[in-house]
Predict the structure of diguanylate cyclase.
Amino acid sequence: MRSHGSASSGTISSMAGFSQSAPGQVPAGSTDHGNCPPPGLQHQRPGKYAVNRQRTRVPILIRAFCVLLLGLFCFQAISEYLSSSITLGVVIQEDGSKVRIIAIRDNSPAQKAGVPAHNTLKAINGHAIQSVLDVTPLLKETRGHSVTLTLDQNQISRDILVTPGVPANYRSLVLNFLILVIYISIGIAAIKASGIDSRTRQLAWFSFAVALDITTYINISYWPGSQILYIGFKQMLAVLQFALLFHLLSMIPKPAPWMKLPYMPAAIYILSLSFHFLWFLLGFNIIFPGSRIANLSRFVIDNNVSFISWGLIVFCVLVYQYFTAREPKGRQQVKWILLSIIPWIILQLSDLFVPNTSWVYSDWYALADKFTHMLLPVGILATIFSYNLLDLSDLFPRKFFYSLLATAVLAFPGLAIVETGIYVSNQINHNAAIWLSSLAMLALGYTFSPLRDRLIQLLEGRSWYKQHHLGRDLRKLAEELTDMDGLEEIERQLTSRLASLMHSQGVVLHLNPGLPDSRASYGSKEEPVACWIGLNSERICLEDLELSRLLAPLHLGHPGETNPLLRKLYRHGLELIVPLHLHGEHLGTLMIGRSLGRHRYSWRETELLNLFAQNISAKFANALLHSQLQFDELTGLYRRKAILERLEQCIQDYRKTAQVFSIAMIDLDDFKMVNDRHGHLEGDRILIRAAATAREMLSKEDRLGRYGGEEFLLVMPGRDAKGAAWLCEHVRWAMEDLQHQDGSATTVSIGIAEIREASDNSLSLEEQAMKLIALADKRLYKAKAEGKNRISYELPVQC
Ligand SMILES: Nc1nc2c(ncn2[C@@H]2O[C@H](COP(=O)(O)OP(=O)(O)OP(=O)(O)O)[C@@H](O)[C@H]2O)c(=O)[nH]1
């Protein structure tokens, strides 16, 4: 494979017969591919050169993790239900040895009882409170009953009677569940596509980390166990999310310079986690209690300073990526994420700068927090969607996806009507009404197919949707090509299907020497395509374009294009040149003609094609390797093993379908003398030209291989001995035109055998092949003995 990287000497014009076949190359000038590699490759063994598929199944560990997440969510729901019955609605914080009430939640029992904020909570039911951890056990003891809170207000004690308990916040749970589903879905989809791009893998880890965070929002004080450990776990999880996000965003659209430094990704995780761990140890007085640095750390933790700083760092990274992205598509991708992350950053900053602390504990803040949490994955998803790396239909069945959408469309009017009805009639409480109406809407949305079908029509007609489908179709095509055998078949399918998928005038696949030359799939106009591959008078040479140096797709037709050759190609209808690379090695190019729809290909389409070309490169590398293994490097004919495989195939067909065939052993006469007189180089030249001359006489079905030194084996499917003799006679005549240096003619002796003469079903394929060859060989020696330059055969006796 190595040698082909530099030898990109395959001229596009070679189909027009301009090619000078170098030794070992298959002359591409011949339109009759009788013995060229493509037809021969049709019988490749399936699976022998299979390429790894890009898409992977979801690993069992990830599935188990998703189940764990759902389990944690159930635990969260139970916790919410249990702890809501003892909720007072006060937000407390330790301040030295005191516990201070820093905020009162909206509509909470504390607010209704008139508990003021910014006081010290001295006791509950007469039991002194010294730590925030003392509160929950006391409330649990008096579950369902009123409690007396003793507050210290400006050195004056005051008792307030409060009845704990609020309705469980199902709305927040539903939102949490929604966020969880979004993140798990993104994680799974990204894992499935992780072979394509490392960014998707990164996105998967980030999504799972957020999902874990969402499911572990638990009122831990309700449960026995170490609160400090829980807080530590949550803090570290939050830092991990930021590190993952920082890593992910530093790679969109292209890796930022710092990500290219050695060990940088590892450093990001290790440093951020260990720093935060240190902060945590200091802030919770686990080490150096009471020191200034410990107090500072506590301030950092209490005010979310580190997370806000992270948010700002992430924001700066995005701005940097936006301004340094070279291509518009890169900027667009960053823009999506920026738009989705800005509300979250603003909300976090409001935490610091809004003087009214109760804002942070208000219902509005909780709602905004949930929505900004949802916005970020939606932004990232939109970016990934615009990359076309993920296919949503892999994740959800198409109809289910549209049913959900139909549900959402119905939800607004439907919820209003159903909920109002239930609420007004006062049969059922408000939270249950929401659940019930949601379920009703889901059922309606799923079964209401007219709306679903209308949505399909509306959305799938949109150009972005078409592009999304193009991505999916290209991936499918790449997979199908991977499963295909036979280079000619691959080329035919690739060019014709690609032309139809891209609605293009035509597609040409040009592979480097060592593989057969360009194939074209013609769209409506043959003329332009003919020009790219040099079929018409304007000869265009690939060497002049230096396509082997092309690393990214080349979009022709820019107004400022200075290269006259590229301008010419564009005038003739070529619009895109996409290189095929594997591990930095240039394998060939895909040339895409202009769109029949008369629009220019968008950058997304170009990007999709580029991804597609990367996907199929491995396939062509395999084909290249296979062709090298199959063909004799001197003559370009099949090697002995390959031609014997073809012979065995014919025997098998004969046994199945009784299709007659013949073989011929062709041997150059007095070749030793040629070598002795003119040298081995001249001998080689004669061998190459003899092979080419013989090949030109053959039809598409005939196969010619180099059996040994100057001896060739010809397999002729469908020809009986008479037909084979006729063909071989022509080969013998043609050889006479091939002159040695001294002007003497090249002659050959040929022995022919037909399968019916040696057929024996009791023999194995290999034995049968040898028997037939032995018969042809016997006749070859007969021809030699009778004076050379003749053919020898026998017509089978008809009974
Ligand atoms: N130049 C060159 N010579 C080869 C190659 N392979 C085999 N030969 C030569 O082909 C010659 C075959 O000689 P012989 O088997 O005696 O046959 P011959 O001289 O053709 O005589 P007849 O078969 O009786 O006509 C030998 O001299 C080999 O060295 C090759 O790849 N290149």
Notes: The chain has four domains: 56-85+172-355, 88-162, 466-588+604-623, 640-792. The pocket of guanosine-5'-triphosphate is lined by residues 634, 667-673, 675, 680, 683-684, 687, 709-710, 784 (CB under 6 Å).
